[in-house]
Amino acid sequence: MTGRPIYAYAHFYAEPQYYLASQADEIWMHPMGGVLLSGYDDHQLYFASALKKLGVTVNVFRAGRYKSAVEPYERDTMSDDAREASQALLGTLWGQYSAEVAASRKAKGFTVARLTNALPTQVERADGDLAKLALGSERSIRLVRSARSTPI
């Protein structure tokens, strides 16, 4: 290591950008920007009814629980087993993300939960200002107008 400080700059940080920025000594952000970490989710299209209306017959063979790959062809909603499996996987991944970001930030009392829990309420309290919300949650974030300027 060179011993030089590392700065991350972006207008907006979502999960991937913030993960990378968390490795920096300081996180710089445009005053009109923000940090929006909403966690991981699973989106699946279900179209059994559409296939039925189109007269398409789907033949599927499966055995056992947690075999949800073919559910979109057979159902219009996620099954309880698929939801359970998805929540377990995404919960594990989010826990790992949160732990790694918190460890790399090395900020006393910092947790990713401070940026994610009760997000709508927090945004309302910050008058819709995501930059203000980020500053209140993460003390090492600095507001700058561009990557070449100094913190405000």
UniProtKB/TrEMBL annotation:
Gene3D superfamilies: 2-enoyl-CoA Hydratase, Chain A, domain 1. SUPFAM superfamilies: ClpP/crotonase. Residues 3-113 form the Peptidase S49 domain. GO terms for biological process: proteolysis. The keyword Hydrolase applies. GO terms for molecular function: serine-type peptidase activity. It comes from the Bacteria. Keywords: Hydrolase, Protease, Serine protease. Belongs to the peptidase S49 family. PANTHER family: PEPTIDASE S49 DOMAIN-CONTAINING PROTEIN (PTHR33209:SF1), PROTEASE 4 (PTHR33209). This is Peptidase S49 domain-containing protein. It comes from Hankyongella ginsenosidimutans.
